Fold these 4 entries.
Entry 1:
Amino acid sequence: MKKELFILSVVVAFSLLTYWLVEPFAHSQMHPHVEIEGFKYSGASDIAEVDNKISKIRKDIEKQKAQETPDSKKLAMLDADMQAAENRREAKKVFWADVERIASLKGDASRGEGVYANCTGCHMEGAAPMGGVIPPNLKTAGALYERQYLIGLIKDPAMASNVDHKFSIVRNHQMDSVKYMVTTDQDIVDVIAYMEASAPKAEEITPKVAFEDACGRCHDVRYKNWTITGTKPSFKDKRDEMAFDIAHLDAQEGIKGYMGKLPPDLSMYIRSRGEHYIKAFVEDPQQLLLGTSMPRVGVNAESAEKVIAYLEEAGDPKKAERNRIGTYVMVYMIFFIIVAFLWKKQIWRDLH
Amino acid sequence: MAKFTKATSVKDWLNQRLAIEKVEKVMASEYWIPKNINFLWAMGMVLAITFALLLVSGIFLLMYYQPNVETAFDSVNYTIMQEVGFGWLWRHIHAVAASVVFLIIYIHMLTGIYYGSYKKGREMIWISGMLLFVTFSAEAFSGYMLPWGQMSYWAGMVITNLFSAGSLELNGVVEWIRGDYVPGQAFLNRFFMLHVLLLPLAIIGLIGIHFAALRIPHVNNQDGEEIDFEVESKKYLDGDKAGSKVIRFANDFMSKDMFVVSIFLMFFFYLVFWNYGFAMDPVNFDPADGLVTPAHIYPEWYFLWSYEILRPFSKDLGLIAFAIAQVIFFALPFMDRSDNVAPANRRGAFKIWFWLMVVDLIVLTAMGKLPPEGAFNTIGLIAALVFFALWIALPFITKSEKKL
């Protein structure tokens, strides 16, 4: 008996060691851990990303200089990259400090309603696509998004959503015109106060609505019949269905043009990426996929939970059933072990 | 023709035609197993049970799975996992069992190596077991293609590419295996056929041979002692159960087997419900996309050691090393030049050989998964070289082993 337990412990120890090496340890090496800030949008990760880039360029410069005959053309290019990156870091620092300062102002919802009239030119029911995307309906925006983020977005959309790298030279962000409509800091907080006051209460927003409004304009979820053109109904007539599908394909084409690539269907993302990855990605897409065209969406912590809940419903709806059945099976197994043990004992009584 | 008399009972009727009593004796009550064994001897039964779980869960999955590149992913992840009642349970059982079966196979193999259960008449047990290992590997690989996720697609791409044989550039062979230039419908269909028909048939046949190979040399025991089964079984049947060195397969050995199986199943179902990530790679929950290569491509954990033997060398050398690693374990009974059938800890240098091999396989497994950069590369290369050094050393250290 003692010997068997010793052998068992050797087998278990080697198995666990192997498991630890190929699972937790290997994954920690392949996917470095990313912290979640808690959907506060202080800009810390935005600045850290540029810092990383700067230290990378610095290493390349040192490498180039260490060579016997440094390539002067390459060096000049690296110097220019360095200059651009340093400017970007400075711009981001100034921007997020501004956001911080504006956030301390108090908004006036009734004044904000007047300012909000500027927004409804684009943000309305049945809005036309602008450069590939349809401007979102803002009914739920005041409850879905973090105030700090909204301040940033109105001040400078590309900066707040951390996609300024896409717009630096050749074209403007689709929403750039807001800079000429909502011009003062007070206007910004006023219009947000109005949006917050006119939005439904947070507890009235379901996971489905949170997902559809925050993510569903770009991402399909086919396991929930969600498409970027709305929920796909069941059609009686094949022609109606085809018409729906064509409109859907057209909308995808538009987004593809804007993003460079079709945003993925998120049906199985809760299993393929997991909760932590999705949260970190939603908070700042750049920190996990540098250079991605996905803008930061700016959901608050509560909405992020709702988005996760929706994705769980789509990709892992049997979780509760799994836990329940699992518990029953464990209880059954304990009985199985007891019976098997007693049977063995009875039979081996004569054998020893 | 045999003589048949009027049957006195159903049992007698069957006995005259099928000799069921004789069969029961041969297969169970008078199939003699040494008494001096530990729980590692139950791994055969654990494997049989796990194979049964794979077979049964596979039959249920087969009712809804669609081997079509357009619908395969959704038939698994939506139809089976969400729409079909308890479909998720069958899939989790199938996926976890497919992974855990290799853990048990490795324990079973290493038990055989440790106790010297592969020589002096037991060579065919070892060889048929190795054939089972290879067939199980093919079965696991072909099954991994079926959900048609990112890892299915890219593992299929990488592994079939190996058949171009490096610098020989036999691209025609690769196309012939795939039925296309890249993994596609033809590829999925043929791996589906292999997974649900040809390979399971081969496995069932090989299990039969593996069991049959045990008959004449008998099961080994903890001390490698040569037992006179005639004398000992007579002692047992005469009533001296405690004094006999053998026990019946059923129910004596079976009762111990089932106790081990019960513990194993508890562990297994814990994995099925709460810790299945190691067997169901998250990356494979992304649908196959020939235009997007995953950041890290690695095989399932049980192939990692041989994958790492492929990886640290140049293309051609790596392929040769890989090919040797796949078959070298077949040669074990012939490379061990010692006559001793005994646990490794009594065999001098072989004891060190055994534990070095275990550690080396684990190191190779870990390095096979880690990204091939920096220190991991060096450790992987050393471990691969140690693997071959151990095999080269084996005949020499066993030849000079003292006779026990």
Entry 2:
Amino acid sequence: MSILINKHTKVITQGITGKTGQFHTLQCLKYAFGKDCFLAGVNPKKAGEVFEGIPVFASVNEAKEKVQASVSVIYVPPFAASKAITEAIDAEIDLIICITEGIPVKDMLFVKNYMLKKKSKSLILGPNCPGLITPDEIKIGIMPGHIHKKGRIGVVSRSGTLTYEAVAQLTDIGLGQSSAIGIGGDPINGLKHLDILQLFNDDADTDAVIMIGEIGGTDEEEAAAWAKINMKKPVVGFIAGVTAPPGKRMGHAGAIISGGKGTAENKLNAMEDAGMHITKNPSELGKIIKRLV
Amino acid sequence: MKIHEYQAKEILKKYGVPVPKGFYLKSEAEFNSQKKSFENVNTWVVKAQIHAGGRGKGGGVKVTNNFTDLQSSFNSILGMQLITPQNGPEGQKVKGVLIEEGVAIEKELYIAFLVDRAEQKICMIFSTEGGTSIEEIAEKSPEKIFKVMIDPNKGVENIQFDHITSLIKVNVDEFKNLVEKLYNIFTETDASLVEINPLIKSNDSKLIALDAKMNFDSNALFRQNEIVALRDFDEEDKYELEASNYDLSYISLDGNIACMVNGAGLAMATMDTIKLFGGEPANFLDVGGGASVEKVKKAFEIMVSNPKVSVIFVNIFGGIMKCDVIAEGIVKAAEELNLEIPLIVRMKGTNEDLGKEILDKSPLKIQSADDMESAAKISVNATNLGA
């Protein structure tokens, strides 16, 4: 088992014909059971074309019907990305993964409130995220597959390369990952730390979790409050941005301390209070996990 | 993206939000050409136009009651190096001044629109007390603050404001009208903040925006040409500006260990690790996912142009970006810039062996490290040796 995706997951790719979409679809196809998983692409202007054996359809609805897909991954450029997400919501895709970086905040606000209005059951991962992977089964997104190893540690993070850092430490010490999930660095996003912790908590094949957060917002605090009561598995936590100056956006659109809110200290305190094993040294995430399992 | 108060007030005016009559002036000559306008009114407020807040505390805002005072205040504020609690010890040179007609104030209020991340809604914050910062109001009298969550699919039309207007004794339609206009500004310009503090109730019960602060979502600038035109490059950190021209994400800090990293999260973690082992980071620098040799070179140029920097720490996790490509970029940049300060490189991920080989073979003195922790320790040590 794993969370959210496995080798039986059927995926469609929105924006499959663009440069980024092509490059990463190819990498995903080559990874483990990729060929069985990536079954259709979407581009209204290029319907009928075939990319690396994958047929391209005019709409998400059509692609979903044809290949019985439950997941869609989006590489559409920022100005059109919210439309692509909305189309996937309307097609009742179970899990919508948006890799695109740079989507206007207002567009994501519309998307999230549109979902509420529609009482949509779709889950969104991202935007501005690396995607997710279940090692040796399936990778959906832009992470380098080769650093992963099948194992029993869950990883959840707002950052891309910092996730890879944690993943590589786990692989190097021989533990590996059950699933690794990048929830993205935008202020308005889909699945949050809390949601992923819940999934790992219920996953029989996950023994412990590495949770990586960063400055900005209060998602880590909310996850900690939930974990304090409900989390049955050890969690090792790290928050990036202890040294970040207030009021400055640190690369990610959501990584900003504003009005005294969203500091690393506040998050670390909440996580420690929830019984998580926090560290200020990102190089020892793997070592700490090893002591705990 | 930030804009000046006078620019924010132009936007308010365009949407029909009342603001005091004012003149934005950049020189003595411009002041003299407007002289006549100043003669018939007694009270004028002279306000320095810089992006940082807290201008009053630094002497950048003056109220004058006669022409002589007005002229001398204008002359003293224009061109001054204005230091406020928000803009650092060097301060900011005042290049323009807003002179506004004084308004008789009955009550100072506060209103702002921003995005509430936790609720995933647009949030209107209103306070029956204004003039000081909202954080201060929240601390002293939280009961005076009202938050209204707005679903962007529904807007503000059906929200009831009777309670607020009864408290401040303002006509409910006038208040609603103001809220609608500010909300339209917020959504139509892709603002991340529209803050009117103070919003005042004048002696004749009119609502007027006495000050205005607006920030905009940089992700949305591609569709906001009118807002982009308001950008004032002089207000931005020169290193950050130079970096942004090359699509590098850079933030200046106060330390002496420059770092170049791929990915925002890892870049923050690298700064944190430097600090953890006793050093001080000189910057945040994310070279992004697809950094070319050219981009790496530019990043080096920006890092070494900061005179405080005595060590460079490169931390790369090669995913899509290959370590050998980065290594080539590093060698080329260091050679062309005649880099004389210690360079510590930690590389991990795709093609890391190839990358390390390139670094080892180069005639440059580069210290490699296998993990972030040891690289940070070497970097901190190197600064101690240099000092």
Entry 3:
Amino acid sequence: MKRVAIAVAAVLLLGAGVAAAATVAPPKGPVSISLPGDAGMAFKPGPGVGAAQASCLTCHSSAYVSTQPVLSRAQWTAEVVKMRTAYGAPITDAQVPPIVDYLTAQYGKP
Amino acid sequence: MRKIGRHHFLAGSVAALGASALPARALADSVQLPFANGERPLLAFPQKRPLLVLSPRPPQLETPFAVFDQGVYTPNDAFFVRWHLSNIPQHVDASAHRIAVTGEVNSPLSLSLADLAALPQVEITAVNQCSGNGRGLSAPRVAGGQWDNGAMGNALWTGVRLRDVLDRAGLKATAKQVQFDGLEGPVLPTTPDFRKSLDVDKARGDDILIAYAMNGVPLPLLNGFPVRLIVPGWYSTYWVKMLSAITVLDHVDDNFWMKTAYRIPDTPDNSVMPGATGFPTVPINRMRVRSFATNVVDGAKVDPKLQELRGIAFDGGSGIKRVEVSLDGGTTWRDAALGPDVGKYSFRRWSAELQTRAGQTYTIAVRATANDGATQPATQGWNPSGYLRNVVEMYKVAVG
């Protein structure tokens, strides 16, 4: 009800959308939540999955890969290179081909 | 698996998730979005109802589109979530939180929320929309977060003007941009921390807030508790969550998230030919005018008794002047009635009489025009990041 009242007051007062209306105090005290980690999501099995897990899952869930449109080898290569150069992923030159092979085979097109 | 239209719930995808830290109750359904590889589990994250999970870590959660039919304000527990980096505090004490104001200022500050309460309080209703909202609908498809159109929401934000905070610190003549940082951090020290910047003149605008309430109550932690930046009319990349540092710069910010990411082509309509390279870019900024129907679903049946079409429209802050609807895919148009004006940055509800015949199929289209004269294009320009979607949306429906 409080929210409705505020919304109504805002409609009445604002007109153009902005007005001073001291109705809500800043919050006090702590809030705690517990995030679900990867919520059970995981990479598909297949050759090279270990390399992909080791390099990709440090920073993000497998959903970053699995929800992409079907990408070509060139596009997956560009993504892996971007993770290394732009986002600082510690992927060595030798680790790039097996990761790209895995991503192309499981989530891409030749 | 059976393919069905958007926003229809599928059972049976729970097994694909395997073990989960979430309660079983939260793992009821998934949703098939209207593009390839668009199946999304529906999970309830903390302080949230079940939302479409684009990624659990860092959390990227999309609002089921039916929510937008239920009112002009988006409920906090249904509001979309998008984080960039996985090092997100899960325990935040509002009483201990501080915002550091440093850089090109005369008096560096460390502000508590109680300090903010001493400044004039402001409320503003504004749409918060992800730069990549609708990216999954890009043609050709592009890599990135594959959102349908539910990475947006409209809320009443309460807080203080950023300008009042900057004036307390006192900007030096050398001030050029104002950079914002929140408690979100990278997992690896080699990953660029997420920071965004605004030009000083933009940062000192009337409508730029540091908000501590959302729809009249504290923000959900996943939406930035205890304070976030509000930049009405601009895409949410600038709406920094868990705001903890304001740094006034004497130069144009060259950090990764400004210089490299969140850029749009600097071309007349900010689009390029697919595959183009080498074009100049600028930081993404003001939102484009958009509109949606909220009580019909593309590809779904419509009850012959349905006599009202309704939906929402918004733009980058001039306000909505006109909404038109078409039942023939955009060949002929007629005006919809606009709902109450709750602010130029807000969703504007609209409705139109719907006359259909059982057994017929229709392609419903919706087009908004803003007070600044901008309207929605019939075809969507393309850019490599899938930003700025605002094409006239179409809904193919069968009556009966």
Entry 4:
Amino acid sequence: MCKAAYLHVPFCQDICAYCDFFRCRYHVGLAEKWLAAMAKELTIKKLSPLTTMYIGGGTPSALQPHQLETLLSLLVPYTKEVNEYTIEANVESLTDEKLDICQRYGVNRISLGVQSLQPSLLNQMHRHHTSEDVLACIKRIHAHGIHNISIDMIYGLPKQSLAMWEEDLHTIVSSFPIQHISLYGLTIEPHSEFGRQGIQNIDEDIEADMYDLAITLLQQYGFQQYEISNFAKPKYASLHNQVYWRYEDFYGIGCGASGKDKRGRYENTRNLETYLQQGASSVYEKLDTKAQMFEMIMMSLRMKQGISRQAFFERFGKDISEVYGSIIEKQKEKGLLLVDEEKIWASERGFHLLNDVLVEFLGDDEAHG
Amino acid sequence: MEQKYIRNFSIIAHIDHGKSTLADRILELTETVEQREMKEQLLDTMDLERERGITIKLNAVQLQYTALNGKTYIFHLIDTPGHVDFTYEVSRSLAACEGAVLVVDAAQGIEAQTLANVYLALDNDLEILPVINKIDLPSAQPDVVKKEIEDVIGLDASCAPLISAKNGLHIRDVLEDIVANVPAPKGDPNAPLQALVFDSVYDAYRGVIAFVRVKEGRIRVGDKVRFMASDAEYEVLECGVRTPKEVKKDSLECGEVGWLCASIKSIQDVRVGDTITNVEYPASAPLHGYREMNPMVYCGLYPIDSAKYNDLRDALEKLQLNDASLQFEAETSQALGFGFRCGFLGLLHMDVVQERIEREYHIDLIATAPSVVYHAYLTDGSMLAIDNPSLLPDVQKIDHIEEPFVKASIMTPKEYVGAIMELCQRKRGNYTDMVYIDDTRMNLIYELPLGEIVYDFFDKLKSCTKGYASFDYELIGYQPNKLAKMDILLNGEVVDALSSIVHREFAYPRGRAICEKLKKLIPKQQFEIPIQAAINGKIIARADIKSLRKNVLAKCYGGDISRKKKLLEKQKEGKKRMKAVGSVEVPQEAFMAVLSMDDES
């Protein structure tokens, strides 16, 4: 049974230079048509009651208050029993009025796109807040009774030094009352503005230093790493994101969203025009057992707790060691995976080199046809 | 057809001077090929040839031409490959002719390759007919080029036809020139058979087809013939000419050029330059000029996927059916596993074979850096020919090593002379001579180690002369030098496939260059990898590949599973194109790193 949903809001007030997600510049008329299409999609989808709801983007807070209210009210039938209700926002657009609306409709978690506190870097990626703005915003969120706050940060930006990164992290952990941090290691995507400008990724070693620094520093301040790039105070690990990492089913709603069910995955159209006229127009990819096994491993090993043998057995009726025994053994010998009776998880080094580990599982996938 | 109405000729030219285009125009004008059947450059039949604009395999075509004097002539146009790798094959095709049409570009003038071909033609006593092509170009200087032909080659160019092969201008002048000035074949139809083999192709149904020029006597279907160098005997089953369609005939008469087949299974029996004679009525001696072809350049070819070893052998065998100059034998490399040591006429030949294996037989290859054949003289007085540097014996056992040298002729506008001399010095060349061709151009003569030429000499020459210099060389024998084997160690292990033979005085910079190049080419792995260059066990250069610290997709939108998976699939694809050497994954191109020049570091 699918109990989680991701809803994609494809609008942004401004486009960030690093971004190649599906998004477009906010426009009132367009947003209203989009809401109409959303209403239609929800009618057709007939979601079952959700335990987690996540509204991401784009920038959901770029919607005008009445539009935001419409969106949230459309979701009321499905979010009555929800445990975690997240909405992504940025500092510039999250007004008190919008916070009131969020509070009224049961939103209990805000994910704030901060990315950096360094004026020069923010300017470079076309973001316009200051450190003070961020702190003020966090306080306002608390004032509206929403106490589960996450912020997104980026490392590996062009011209970002290790010292800048350290300064930002210090400011956050020492003076921002938040519970959760997501770190995004920047890859220059060819279709982002950075990519088009021909900007290169920063030195691999500096990027690795930034990652290591974050792990150490955040843990010192009580943020536990529970996934490759996610850190939380105890009990604040994101319930919704864990649905992805446990490879459980989730709905994908809206233009540009993707979802998964028992048999496979689907991607809704990324063309806004198509969405407005013909709805989600999703493309479905059916996955055989072997592909599903791999994907479950790929997602689960991102978590500190790794993959549960029990969960794997329940899903596929086979013991994970029966299918991947020799690969697991080899990675264990290399010190990249750790194994006990209940689970298989990545070591500290295995976390850093997870792609190398996963490629080995992919190899097996093909060898077995 | 009476012998006096036969004309056998080749077209010789520098690459891009319009040889193939002129051949096409001649075929059109003699209506040998209908306009609509014409593909551009009909004689170049292999895709690769078309792509590279070069001719690799030879072809011979019979044409009929009714001259202005009202008489009809039989022309045999014998195409020649246009690259220095195939000099011997060119010389044999020329030996099948009485004349050669020398095409010179009206804008570019004479090039080193033009000269080389002219000398080959003169060696074979051919009548040379200069033709000035591309006269429609704005930069054409036909008078200057004519004077150059007269000064440099010593040919009278005053009556040379001025043509544009591309636009079909004055092509008939060339044909009339051939009628008037190329001698008819001599030779006695009743003498014992002597037919020169100048090419062969393999046909899956009929075996090897030999292309021959009947010099004396005649060949009839049913004759028993002997190949005098290989001593193989066969009965002629079919013979004929190409127009370029195959036309069967009962016999090939004295002076004619055509093909024969005789259920010949092995191309080794049909060697270019060999003489065919009649078993019953044999000639006392073969035609002169036969030479066994020895590969100049060797490299190891290994399948990336070792399961494809047998496929690679099949591919090499199939290519060899059509290419007697390709040699190979099985070899084993500690680093690369099972593969083949292959011998080629030159670098172009090597490239073509590799590309055909990858393209036509779908086998991903690792090629080791090309090597020449070194002569290692041992302390016990014996000599070992070394075509694989890793097989050079221990230094204690070696008295001295000799390497092949070439005489290189480099034609260049005079402003690049300094740059070329610098390049030749760096390539261990010995200056021989320098002559003026005219006020603006010179010909530099150097003796160079062949081993340096198979590195990147040609590319370097092009880049230091903005492409204006042209280059040709011939082998002049072996010379002793201070040579030593340089080993490369990855992670402390010698990788035999990366060994090379270097001059001691150049060893340090080259060792450094190779280490640095490998550092760039080999991706970071989970552990640190030292790369070392060593001579006789002594480390002379080192570079370290730092260990990979982080390879994980940090947050992107959590639900985007397909994106994560695609990234991993891409990484896996990349891995497939690498070879595991010990515990190190080494990409294909790293095995060519030994080619990196000292000045690249």
